[in-house]
Write a structure and sequence with these properties.
Structural class: mainly beta
Strand order of the largest sheet: 3-4-5-6-7-9-10
Pfam family, one: FliW
Distance between the termini: 39 Å
Subunit structure: Interacts with translational regulator CsrA and flagellin(s).
Organism: Roseburia yibonii
Largest sheet: 7 strands, mixed, barrel
Helix content: under 10%
InterPro entries: Flagellar_assembly_factor_FliW, Flagellar_assmbl_FliW_dom_sf
Shape: globular
CATH superfamily: BH3618-like
Number of helices: 2
Number of strands: 11
Oligomer: single chain
Keywords: Bacterial flagellum biogenesis, Cell projection, Chaperone, Cilium, Cytoplasm, Flagellum, Translation regulation
CATH topology: BH3618-like
């Protein structure tokens, strides 16, 4: 697959993440691959959900705990049933990131987390209950974490 952001990539079938209902706003795109920065030793920081049905479409995502350590959204368990059995070892939570020019304006969407079952490779984006912002500014949090 020749992607806009990453050029030519080869995705192994066992790495494909399936969103049965697509992602909010993109219901027709169901298959994605999580692309990490190959230069990094760990999977912290920004990664990308690359759509496998459209080489142009990729979403930047980040682990919400890296910018909001107390993030613990309340999610209706019925919504998570299609993912299969979830536990602490196989549950991976991500939030989408938006950058619109100035780095100080970078935000994440804490209201609509992406939940991935790493065993089944099934995922869903849900609307979290409670008062979580759609645009949570993270620049200061990232600076603080980097010790600047």
């Amino acid at each position: 697959m020749n992607t806009r952001l990453f050029g030519e990539i080869d995705i192994q079938k066992d790495k494909v993440i399936c969103f049965e209902n697509g992602i909010i706003g993109f219901p027709d795109y169901k298959e994605y691959a999580l692309i990490y920065d190959s230069e990094k030793k760990d999977k912290k920081g920004v990664s990308w959900l690359q759509c496998l049905e459209d080489e142009v479409f990729a979403l930047p995502v980040i682990d919400p705990l890296s910018v909001k350590p107390d993030y613990a959204p309340d999610i209706d368990e019925e919504l998570l049933k299609p993912l299969g059995e979830l536990n602490a070892e196989n549950t991976y939570v991500l939030v989408t990131l938006t950058a619109t020019g100035k780095k100080e304006d970078i935000t994440v969407n804490l209201k609509a987390p992406i939940i991935i079952n790493t065993d089944t490779k099934k995922a869903i984006q849900v609307i979290a209950e409670g008062d979580y912002p759609v645009k949570y500014k993270i620049y200061d949090k990232l600076k603080e974490k980097a010790g600047e």
